[in-house]
Fold each of these.
Amino acid sequence: MPASRSSPRPPVARRDCFEVAERIDASGNIILPLDETMVRSELIPALASSGYDAVAICLLSAYVAPAHEQRLKAMIAVALPGLRIACSHEVAREFRGGMGFLRRFEILADEAKLALYSDRLRRPPDGLFGGEAGSTGYCEIRRGGQPLRLRSKDEVQLQRGDIVMLAVGGGGGYGDPARRAAARIADDVADGYVAG
């Protein structure tokens, strides 16, 4: 994101986000079955007491295997009739990868040590089903105006006044980017996410 623009506000406040116990991996294998008892005893009462008129369900890997999203939608629909429910697996699948981010930390005292155990500094994450690869990240220390680039596994003694910059690369895309809606591409260009 360009430095001149501030990050957009999240569309949903954290207090309005709920989790359920379940896990499906990127190949569609069920690692942890949907905890239906938790859905009935915790999630549905929380939704009912909060007065929502719509719910969006977004579970990892639902684009490959939507069974948990489908079951969760059915359970909520039965318990809370009239509530509008949208699932992530029901939307278009041609998306760019997630955006990376940059964090800067100023070291305020001597005797600090940075231990870096990172990945994706040399090889970007792959895209899926025709999606393009993501981007790599980096970690750099600015000391006296001079950059010191770190390896993905590194340890450095820091000094007061050092600026540590940690950049996390963006994720790989999903689906053929040629099928991405023109309006979404135009928005990404306007926001500086992709080149025009």
Amino acid sequence: MTADPDPRPDRPKDRQRFVPLSLLFTALALLVVASATPANNCEPGFGFDGGQCVPCEPGRFSNGGADACLLCPVGTSSGAQASSCDQCAPGTANPIAGGQCTACTPGTFASEEGSGSCNNCPVGTSSGAQATSCDACPAGTENPVAGGTCTACGFGEYAPNPGTASCLGCPAGTQVAPSRTECNLCEPGTANPFARGLCAPCEPGTFAPDAGSGICTLCPVGSESRDDRIACIQCPIGEANPVAGGVCESCPQGEFTAETGTAECNKCPVGTTSNARATACEDCEPGTFNPSAGGACLDCRPGSFASDSGAADCAACPLNTFAEAFGSVACDNCPPETLTRQPGASACLSFDLFDNGFEFP
């Protein structure tokens, strides 16, 4: 007798086993998620962000398999979608992680690859942009500040050698050369009393005979400086200078000098005056007089005369004579039927006017 494999007589013999549909849908969803999520499997240069692989930005990198792009360290940088970082080239630097390499500014330098910062050039040196080393400041320039630039020496200053931190001042008696690399001695006839000053021509009445003079010397009395201010010359005849450092001037009317190098003019005696060049005295001409030493000859007034030269005073016309004009050398007799009331008349009075008491000057 054959045994029934199913002890439950009420189960239908043709019923088959099955999996619930809810379990099938859950398994399918898990399969889809697993296939869409490449965990730790982004290509180099990509990082996982927001549920997908995205290109790395400049300054970041990924060498593959990373969850996110990483920052490039200081001294390095990268372009977009980079799998590694490159060191900053000499002359550039990057002080910030994730930043970019930038050129060193003038006055700074970076001599090696991978610099995180540019170094200041020391005093007396400088550099251009993106420099890998510093150059000494040329002669005639200076740089007193680390990281600064070389500039031309200032007014009255010089730098004889390259690499100067601070320019030197030219001493008195010199002035700076156009090159700013040396000081030149003041030329004869010029002087400079100040450090960092300029040579200037000596003033009239002073002189500088040698090169490198700090001050101009006063010419002594009786002399003045030459036009080139290198030496003094004596005052010529007819001129004088009573002051040291002064100039020679022509003697005034009535005074003279007969020799060179005179400090003061001499006064002409009464009855004389100086000639046109003031080199000697001459007698006053007839009709003129000079009553004081050092004066000028004056014309005799009407009613007076000077018949001889060298008169100190004019004589009054005698009674019944007259001199009508200035500068008379003689008096004229009164015409007939005229006369003068007193000596020194400039005109004669007729008898009629005289009898009537007319006062004629």
